[in-house]
Design brief:
The complex is a heterodimer. Chain A is mainly alpha-helical. Chain A contains 12 helices and 2 strands, in the order ααααβαααααβααα. Chain A has a domain at about 20-125 and about 130-225. Chain A has helices at about 5-30, 40-55, 60-85, 90-110, 140, 145-165, 165-175, 180-185, 190-215, 225-235, 240-265, 270-290; strands at about 115-120, 215-220. Chain A has a two-stranded antiparallel sheet. Chain B has one domain (about 30-335): ABC transporter involved in vitamin B12 uptake, BtuC, CATH 1.10.3470. By secondary structure, chain B is an all-alpha fold. Chain B has helices spanning about 15-35, 40-50, 55-80, 85-105, 110-140, 145-165, 195-215, 215-225, 230-235, 240, 245-265, 275-285, 290-315, 320-335. Chain B is about 70% helix and about 0% strand. In chain B, helix 3 (about 55-80) packs across helix 13 (about 290-315), helix 4 (about 85-105) crosses helix 12 (about 275-285) and helix 13 runs antiparallel to helix 14. The chains are: A mainly alpha, B mainly alpha. Chains A and B meet through helix 3, helix 4, helix 9, helix 10 and helix 12 of A and helix 1, helix 5, helix 6, helix 12 and helix 14 of B.
Chain lengths: ~300, ~350
């Protein structure tokens, strides 16, 4: 691959987990709830996957554990808000903190360390999709990715369709716009809200799995701010799946350029990592994400 | 994107606080029971040892001061109807600039130097909050996201600077050089690190409480936070209320960072804020954003941290148990339970 193809392929690989987490954030956002727990849900999913897949040797059980763990944590935030009238935003913040502490405790007990844990055989291999991988430029960029990236792309497509073209997505949007309309239609708004949280957790779990499988290891703080960036993507993408795709690809490109700058220009890694945050902050500061009404205002 | 108002809610007042405290302490106790080889010793280490020796207790009180200031800043912004998630970067910048200012001015009298260092810290925190405050006022930009993102970028840049150009090459620590001893917070009860910082935090809490409860501007600010449209219709200075609380919050966070840097460390250490911004939010919520309750809540958090550290040293319990306990406080801090109807529109 030439440098441009390498850059574009890396940008795509980085963008996909962010996009899926952002679609998860879109589910709750559409329902009128700011879910700032995306970061914690990604970490929880990745950790649960690492524990279950490494422990049982089964990818399927690993994925199931990740989905269950992240969805359960998302539902915990939902239940705290719904049953105990806790502030949904605060409950989601608490999930992030809870994951940080609980994962540290669990990692010590399960892996005997709070550090990096290599996951034998769980590194997702690169898969070339036949003649498609030979198409100039597009082939190397789109069709020589790791296997997990194809699955992520499929999950993103499913999530986008679920949001845009299914009764589930319609209910989410109706909930966010006018809760009463759901009641008139005989739909329980609380149930829709819980489903939004659960779907958000599941999407983040898959993003976490992808991160773990793309490096073949469990790394503390594996999300490295991607959950927060996903949240920004929701706003920059104007809460539309196509917009989210464009924003996520933009961030993927930014990260890929940062990585290239690090290796080519020997830029310190901290400054490289600061770049996407600075760029996102510039977007947010320029009004890319504006204050607007939502139900978590109380 | 406003995160919620803590107005009158159904359910018993204070029930969320009780639940938060109970859940935090219960989780710590359960974990100790499950994981400790000698639960009795671990219980004593976690719950009692912070009070067993005057030095440890004095350090516990000192340790509460900086998060208390951060929590006061959080509460102030909350009153204006928003959340400042950038406490971490603002405090880090405050700590770093206070040290840099004092390293650059080595010949000032001690008290003047210390005051200047603290002022530099407050300035740095406010400076980091400035872009978010400006964009909130002028563009209606989202404070919650912008404060967090700016803070993250600042944290990373400072991590690089302290490990690189600002690093003291003679030290094994990744840290700046130490400031003159005269510029550091005077120790009131050696060998503990107790300084006047808790007094400063208490004074700030009293001042904020007086401002919010007894001044016209404070009342207007609260009304603006609860109902901006009403504030506009009443002719309040809404542009000022969208700007100054965030700047003041940044200053309080920066001051907190300066206290950390000029206290036990005497220099800016990489990663020295260690989650103080998040702790400030948790403390503010636990206290219901009431300045009168923020110092007691900060002391409770300091007890949790000291207890988990003591249990780690004395009984081999992971310090992460303190993080889990704090998370549970946050989860339940705004809850009301055993009440009647739930609020609509929250899940």
């Amino acid at each position: 691959m030439n440098p441009m193809e390498t850059l574009a392929a890396e940008a795509l690989a980085i963008a996909l987990p962010i996009l899926l987490a952002a679609l998860g954030g879109l589910f709750t956002e559409a329902a009128g709830i700011l879910n700032v727990a995306l970061e914690g849900l990604i970490v929880a999913g990745a950790f649960a996957f690492a524990v279950a897949a490494e422990g049982t040797g089964s990818l399927v059980l690993g994925v199931a554990a990740a989905l269950a763990c992240s969805a359960a944590l998302a539902l915990l935030a939902a239940a705290a808000a719904d049953r105990l009238s806790a502030n949904p935003f605060v409950a989601a913040l608490a999930v992030n903190l809870l994951v940080a502490g609980a994962v540290g405790l669990a990692s010590e007990h399960v892996f005997g360390t709070k550090g990096v844990v290599p996951l034998d055989g769980l590194l997702s291999p690169r898969v070339e999709l036949g003649f498609l991988s030979g198409i100039p430029f597009l082939g190397p960029v789109l069709f020589r990715q790791r296997g997990i990236s194809y699955l992520l792309a499929a999950a993103c497509a499913i999530a986008a369709v679920a949001y845009s073209a299914t009764p589930f997505g319609l209910r989410l949007r109706a909930l966010g716009m006018k809760e009463g309309s759901l009641r008139i239609a005989g739909v329980d708004p609380r149930a829709v809200r819980y489903w939004a949280y659960a779907a958000s957790g599941a999407a983040c779990a898959l993003a976490g799995i992808a991160l773990a499988r793309s490096i073949g290891a469990w790394v503390p703080n594996i999300a490295s701010g991607r959950g927060w960036i996903a949240l920004v993507v929701v706003y920059l993408g104007r809460k539309r799946p196509a917009g989210l795709l464009a924003a996520a690809l933009g961030f993927g490109l930014l990260f890929a350029l940062s990585n290239a700058a690090q290796s080519v220009l020997s830029v310190p890694p901290e400054l490289v990592l600061a770049l996407p945050y600075a760029a996102t902050a510039a977007a947010a500061l320029s009004g890319g994400a504006r204050t607007r009404g939502r139900t978590d205002r109380g | 994107m406003k995160p919620g108002k803590e107005g009158r809610r159904p359910g018993f007042p204070g029930s969320g606080t009780a639940l938060a405290l109970g859940a935090a302490l219960g989780a710590a106790a359960l974990y100790i029971l499950a994981a400790a080889e000698e639960p009795g010793a671990a219980f004593r280490a976690f719950f009692l040892s912070p009070f067993a020796r005057p030095t440890v207790l004095a350090n516990l009180i000192e340790q509460a001061a900086a998060p208390c200031l951060c929590a006061l800043g959080t509460a102030l912004v909350f009153r204006s109807g928003d959340f400042n998630l950038g406490g971490e970067g603002q405090a880090y910048a405050g700590g770093a600039l206070s040290v840099l200012a004092l390293l650059a001015a080595p010949s000032l009298p001690g008290p003047a130097g210390l005051a200047g260092g603290l002022a530099a810290g407050a300035f740095a925190g406010a400076f980091v909050a400035l872009p978010s405050a400006l964009s909130r006022r002028n563009l209606g930009a989202d404070v919650l996201l912008s404060t967090f993102l700016v803070s993250q970028a600042v944290v990373l840049v400072l991590d690089w600077a302290i490990a690189g150009p600002l690093r003291d090459p003679a030290s094994n620590l990744i840290a700046t050089p130490v400031v003159e001893a005269a510029y550091r917070l005077p120790r009131l009860a050696p060998p503990s690190w107790l300084s006047f910082a808790p007094v400063l935090a208490a004074a700030a809490a009293v001042a904020l409480d007086r401002f919010l409860r007894s001044s016209r501007r404070g009342l207007e600010l609260t009304l603006f936070g609860r109902n901006p449209d009403f504030a506009v219709s009443m002719g309040f200075r809404v542009r000022a209320y969208a700007f100054w609380p965030l700047l003041a919050s940044g200053a309080l966070n920066g001051l907190a960072g300066a206290l950390l840097a000029l206290g036990a460390n005497g220099r800016a250490v990489r990663g020295m804020t260690g989650g103080i911004g998040w702790n400030g939010i948790s403390i503010a919520l636990l206290a219901g954003n009431d300045p009168r309750l923020i110092l007691p809540a900060a002391l409770f958090f300091s007890w949790l941290e000291t207890g988990s550290r003591q249990a780690s040293i004395l009984a081999g319990i992971s310090v992460d148990v303190g993080t889990v306990a704090k998370a549970l406080v946050l989860l339940f801090a705004t809850a009301r339970f055993l009440g009647t109807a739930r609020r609509k529109g929250t899940a």
